[in-house]
Amino acid sequence: MKLVLVGKAGAGKTSIKQAIFEMRNPDDLIIYPLDPTRGINTSNYSWMDVDINVFDTSG
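^ that's the sequence the OP posted. Answer follows.
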């Protein structure tokens, strides 16, 4: 399965990806915001018995 995260810069796409797939604490992501994504970052996850390719895009 492929998942593409598209939206305005600074909207929280990477934070959502990290909270859901990398089990990061959402409160920490609010207190310590991430740097904006530049280009496209790809990640592969096995989540709920499904292999997912996540494409995190910039703006």
